[in-house]
């Protein structure tokens, strides 16, 4: 393709950035309800930022797809630092906490990129799978812990409340 790609119309930019923000907030709401350190606002901002960089790079790079791919690569590498900030090691229990939230921040950045690029079907499918994994995965893990060790009590950040099964 020769020549620059015309800039996206303002309504399309608004749609892409808004969709990314909503997607991030929905996934962040799950983390918020579980009392995790990175919640709705953090996830919403990560998705918005990733979408913004993607939309801007699509506009600036024009037909040069390699430049857009380098931008995506930079977003995904850089977001690891933010995700690393929610991972904590607990020496007293010799355990690590925050890995799921860090992974959800990384996925939200990818969702922001997909929304920013206008990949709607991919975004919807990924949101459904992500939410299913976060919501149903916790319940499955809880049941597996009970089977392995029936005397284990549930100690999530919901102050010891047993999750609804």
Fold and architecture overview:
This protein has 165 residues and is mainly α. It has one domain (10-139). Helix content is 68%, strand content 4%. It is built from 5 helices and 2 strands, in the order H-H-H-E-E-H-H. The protein has helices spanning 10-33, 40-61, 65-84, 99-116, 120-148, and strands spanning 88-90, 95-97. Strands 1-2 form a two-stranded antiparallel sheet. Strand 1 (88-90) and strand 2 form a beta hairpin. Helix 2 packs antiparallel against helix 3 (65-84), helix 2 (40-61) runs parallel beside helix 4 and helix 3 (65-84) runs antiparallel to helix 4 (99-116). The N and C termini lie far apart (54 Å).
List keywords for this structure.
165 residues, mainly alpha, two-stranded antiparallel ribbon, elongated
**Mean pLDDT score:** 83
Strand order of the largest sheet: 1-2
What is the total number of structural domains?
1
Helix content: 55-70%
* Biggest β-sheet strands, sense, barrel: 2 strands, antiparallel
Q: Which class do the helix and strand fractions yield?
A: mainly alpha
Count of beta strands: 2
Strand content: under 5%
Radius of gyration (CA) equals 19 Å
Large-scale geometry: elongated
N→C terminal distance: 54 Å
Annotation field: number of helices: 5
Q: What low-confidence regions span 5 or more consecutive residues with pLDDT below 50? A: 157-165
Q: Helix and strand succession?
A: HHHEEHH
């Amino acid at each position: 393709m020769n020549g620059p790609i015309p800039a996206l119309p303002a309504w399309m930019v608004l749609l892409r950035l808004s969709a990314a923000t909503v997607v991030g907030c929905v996934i962040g709401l799950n983390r918020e309800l579980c009392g995790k350190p990175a919640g709705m606002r953090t996830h919403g901002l990560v998705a918005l930022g990733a979408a913004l960089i993607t939309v801007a790079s699509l506009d600036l790079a024009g037909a040069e797809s390699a430049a857009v791919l380098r931008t995506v690569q930079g977003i995904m590498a850089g977001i690891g630092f933010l995700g690393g900030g929610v991972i904590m090691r607990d020496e007293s229990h010799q355990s690590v906490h925050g890995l799921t939230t860090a992974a959800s921040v990384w996925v939200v950045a990818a969702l922001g990129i997909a929304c920013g690029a206008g990949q709607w079907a991919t975004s919807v499918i990924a949101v459904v799978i992500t939410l299913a994994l976060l919501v149903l995965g916790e319940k499955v893990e809880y049941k597996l812990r009970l089977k392995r060790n029936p005397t284990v009590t549930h100690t999530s950040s919901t102050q010891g409340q047993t999750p609804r099964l």
